[in-house]
Amino acid sequence: MTTEDPKVLNQYGDESFQIQDPMTGQFYSVSFAWNCSMAKRLYAQMYFLAGDISRGYADDKGRIVVSSLSSARQELGYLRELCEYWEIHYTDRALQSLSRIEIQVMLRSFMMKKEQNSGECQILGVSMLSMMCRILDKTHNHLHCGTLVDGVIHRMTTAFKKSTMEPLLKGSDLDYATWSRGGSYGSIPMTCASLMLAEAITLIESDEAQIAAIFFTQWRREKTKVTSWFGEKDRLALYRRMQSPQYV
Questions:
Q1: What digits encode the pLDDT tens for the residues 117-163?
Q2: Cβ distance 63 to 248 under 8 Å?
Q3: Whose CB among 124, 136, 228, 238 lies 3.0–4.6 Å from 128's, allowing a Cys bridge?
């Protein structure tokens, strides 16, 4: 967490961007010093700014007010995995040149995680597949809308996802339908489960969660008209302003 650094201009090709949390107004640095070419870094930055999470530049100063800090970090993490795999396996090729099979091989590599202690590979949960397919689908949409110069030409349909995962699930006791609903305990590695639990605890103990709990506790206690909570001078006005694209 940092204060706004006027030296960070959030320009394409920069090794880092500075994004603003809409809830707190604080600024955070996100790095693009990835193991990939400048062209792929530029593509990721263009994708990020064209998406719903960043909503482009907030003003003429180049500030980026994301819709959610955690969502922005998560999306950038997935984009990094995509770009670094792309750099290693398809260095001089465009995304639109990748065949269905090549995309499936890539997705399978993302879905396997090696345990540090045992060295065994575990299949990650369905959220990983959903997020990567969502990003690939959006590259397809951006390509056809002309907002990006490249993107996959194949759609990430349910049938596509199923055929992607079937070879990985063949050795387990899970079929795709069961796994996609969350499967059993074994479908999520302990390392991932621990991270998810830690993230959940962090959210529950956060200032935002405590404020929300106090807010709704007070709301239930007060004998007041609901409409009075949502007028022009209501207690949620600041929150709504910060959620607005025009907020600076």
A1: 666 778 888 889 999 999 999 999 999 999 999 999 999 999 999 99
A2: yes
A3: 124
Calpha distance 244→248 (Å, rounded): 9
Instruction: State if pTM tops 0.85.
Output: no
Nearest residue to 96 (alpha-carbon basis) of 48, 154, 135: 154
Q: Cα separation of 247 and 207, whole Å?
A: 21
What is the C-alpha separation between 137 and 134, in angstroms, rounded? 5
Residue 146's CB: how many other CB atoms inside 10 A?
7
Q: Which residues pair with 113 in a beta bridge?
A: 122
Q: What is the DSSP string of 128-166?
A: HHHHHHHHHHHHHHHHHHTSSS---SS---HHHHHHHHH
Residue 211 token pair: 């404020």
Nearest Cα neighbor of 123 from 132, 113, 133 is: 113
Three-state SS at 73: helix
* Predicted pLDDT at 2: 63
Please write the tens of the pLDDT for every residue from 13-48: 999 999 998 888 889 999 999 999 999 999 999 999
Q: Which two tokens stand for residue 99?
A: 């065949």
